[in-house]
Amino acid sequence: MATEYDFIVVGGGTAGCVVAGRLAENPDVKILVIEAGITNPGDVDAITTPARAFELRDSKYDWSYKTTMIDRPEYTRIEKPNTRGKALGGSSCLNYYTWIPGSAATFDEWADFGGDEWTWKTLQPYFYKPATYHDDAGLHRPELKYIGQSGPIPVSHADLIPEMAPFRDALTKAWVSKGEPLTDDVHNGTMRGLWKSLNSIHAGKRSSSWLYLVDKPNVTVLGHTIASRLVFSSGGGSTPKATGITALLPDNTPVTFTARRELILSLGVFETPKLLLLSGIGPGPAGTFLPSPHVGRNLLDHPILPHVFKLRPGHGLDPTLLHAGPLRDAAVSQYRWKGTGALASGLLELVGLPRIDDRLAKIPAYTAAKAANGGRCPFGPQGQPHFEIDFVPMFSDAFQWHIPAPEGDGGEYMTVIVDLLRPLSKSGTVDLVDGDARTAPRVNLNFFSDGLDLVAMREGVRWVDELLMEGEGMRDVVVGDYPWRMPRAGDEAMEKMVLERSQTGFHPCGSARMGKDIEHGVVDGKLRVHGVENLRIIDASVIPVIPDCRIQNSVYMIGEKGADLIKAAYPDLYA
Ligand SMILES: Cc1cc2nc3c(=O)[nH]c(=O)nc-3n(C[C@H](O)[C@H](O)[C@H](O)COP(=O)(O)OP(=O)(O)OC[C@H]3O[C@@H](n4cnc5c(N)ncnc54)[C@H](O)[C@@H]3O)c2cc1C
Predict the structure, then answer these.
(1) What residues does ligand 1 touch, defined as CB less than 6 Å away?
(2) Is 237's pLDDT higher than 90?
(3) Which of 65, 76, 199, 293 has a 20 to 30 Å separation from 327 between CA atoms?
(4) What is the count of structural domains for the chain?
């Protein structure tokens, strides 16, 4: 095996595969991808079958991080597992598919960190470049093709499976009856209303970033291999230069690989800062090689509050997907022979993106925070939605592992996920536990460190529950809370419930954020690590302001933009 390459991409995840695939467009350029997980996710049924996504939690394809969720003086919760993909394609092999960019105004805030190259207008083409949009059944406006013309990732609208029609209809009716809008386009920088989700699924199969590497013989992928330390040249200049990476092969033998041009770190939001820390780049005493105060700081994520309603028969997919019996047998057979039906569904057909100003305006703590913010809503100063609300028409234990699964009662359920999109808490951290590259880092998401997030979440749950329990159509479908009643009447009881049941939205980012200089962030606007030559970070770690929706489209965008930044630096290779 060669040990010298033009570029080495460390971490073959979502962004890593994008970068490697784009750099490989010059067939003379040799690229190594070092990946800790499997290299053949396309052969794994549980990964490729859309409706099996929830089964991947805590599987051998999951890093299953132990994570501090909440770290408040009166309440701390540490739990396991927190999912991240361990496979070529990374978390794009384990995620829940929604393909959505975010609000223009939120990306414009990135310019304060990365400069003028990081605004919605300049980034817009990169949001669309990864995808090819499909509407095989011709159900949507042809104009929506702009979402993706020729990228390697096929995306399509939620499959609208017939079993879910009564659920969809009731939910849409309830949404409209409360005066809320519907939308069919959230990719133009504005997102508001109930939307038929677009997913990284097409023709019954998951689309993951390893698709960028298909037919790229100049990319060598080394699987089951753990990157453990960066190697720097001791050369005469004042700025150290990254020259290589030491990695542990599957039998734990260390091997050092050398990059003729650059190393690109794409190990994801927890492992990228860990590798920097292991290599002596970090804050305080961790910065033995290079003090860099933001490594492993500024960790952001969306807190979510998942909860469950029991539904009247005919509205949930539990009998079709979760219970052994003729309905499930038929679904399995339909998927096997035709690639369609409930198993081909990402299960998240409808996504709501509301603001709840009227409710928040009644809360003194909120109005005080708004006044202190120059009269602008702290959660959505430019009209961004306050929440993403996902409606899964069955019991989903991937979101609700704290509560007993309703086994054997033959019932039908709905899991509602309330996701606070622009939380004010911004103090998560990633730290080393020890010096062994195989040890997981210590992750603290530190949700609700700002108490106003707790209030907002409480109100978001009340808002959507009122819509579901009282809205036209849905009020005839919802039977009641499962497994116990939500304490909707009391503020204190609601906040306690939020602390006890909230979860990661699976959108952590920001742990090696962009910044103007080393005192402001870890990488510059070209994604180069401040204080080191020949080293870039291209993954969710560099995100300075969390997107106000799910983040895979943003991560693919960063991969595409990052690849172009590298190409621009090497005109001899990419003229
Ligand atoms: C369960 C789940 C559901 C989600 N649902 C959605 C959704 O519906 N919509 C959406 O937009 N987003 C969703 N996301 C978020 C989105 O998928 C991620 O933010 C994104 O994929 C992260 O990409 P990344 O490149 O930063 O990291 P990753 O894709 O996680 O890639 C990191 C890679 O580095 C490898 N690696 C790590 N350490 C080492 C090491 N030491 N040596 C070698 N390799 C290493 C990992 O194995 C992995 O392949 C979800 C995420 C999860 C986990």
Answers:
(1) 11-16, 34-37, 83-86, 90-92, 94-98, 226-227, 266-269, 271, 437, 506-507, 539-540, 550-553, 555
(2) no
(3) 199
(4) 2
User: Helix axis angle, 165-177 relative to 451-470, nearest 10°?
Assistant: 110
Quote the domain boundaries for residue 469: 159-196+303-420+449-501
Residue 404: asked if its preceding bond is cis (omega within 30°), the reply is: no
Do 138 and 223 share a domain, yes or no? Answer: yes
Q: Which of 209, 211, 212, 206 is nearest to 53 (CA)?
A: 206
User: Looking at the predicted structure, is the pLDDT value of residue 160 above 90?
Assistant: no
**Mean pLDDT of the 272-284 span:** 98
Q: Whole-structure pTM over 0.90, yes or no? A: yes
**Residue whose CA lies nearest to ligand 1 atom number 52:** 95
Q: What is the pLDDT of residues 59-96, one digit of tens each?
A: 999 999 999 999 999 999 999 999 999 999 999 999 99
Query: Mutation test of ligand 1: which of 267, 275, 349, 353 has the most ligand atoms closer than 8 Å to its C-beta?
Result: 267
In the numeric block, the tokens 């790229």 are attached to 216
Residue 362 sits in the same domain as residue 344: yes
Q: Give the E-state strand segments of 379-422 in sequence order.
A: 387-392, 412-420
Same domain, 566 and 454: no
Model confidence band, residue 235 (pLDDT cutoffs 50, 70, 90): low
- Average pLDDT over the chain reads 96
Most confident of 25-34, 157-166, 342-351: 25-34
CA of 411 to the centre of ligand 1 (A): 34
pLDDT tens digits for 450-506? Answer: 999 999 999 999 999 999 999 999 999 999 999 999 999 999 999 999 999 999 999
Whole-number Å distance between alpha carbons of 367 and 513: 30
Q: Same domain, yes or no, for 15 and 71?
A: yes
Euclidean distance between CA atoms 358 and 1, whole angstroms:
63
* Per-position b or e across 113-151, b if 16+ CB within 10 A of its CB: bbeeebbbebbbebbbbbbbbbeeeeebeeebeebbeeb
> Beta strand pairing status for 131-134 and 350-353?
unpaired
Percent of the chain beyond pLDDT 70?
99
Q: How far is 561 from 6, CA to CA, in rounded Å?
A: 19
**What is the pLDDT confidence band of residue 236, given thresholds at 50, 70 and 90?**
low
What is the CA(172)–ligand 1 centre distance, in A?
32
Q: What is the β-pairing status of strands 153-157 and 131-134?
A: parallel
Distance of CA 60 to the CA centre of its chain: 19
Query: In 10 A of CB 336, how many CB atoms?
Result: 10
Pairwise CA distance, residues 408 & 32, whole Å: 49
CATH number of the structural domain spanning residue 460? 3.30.560.10
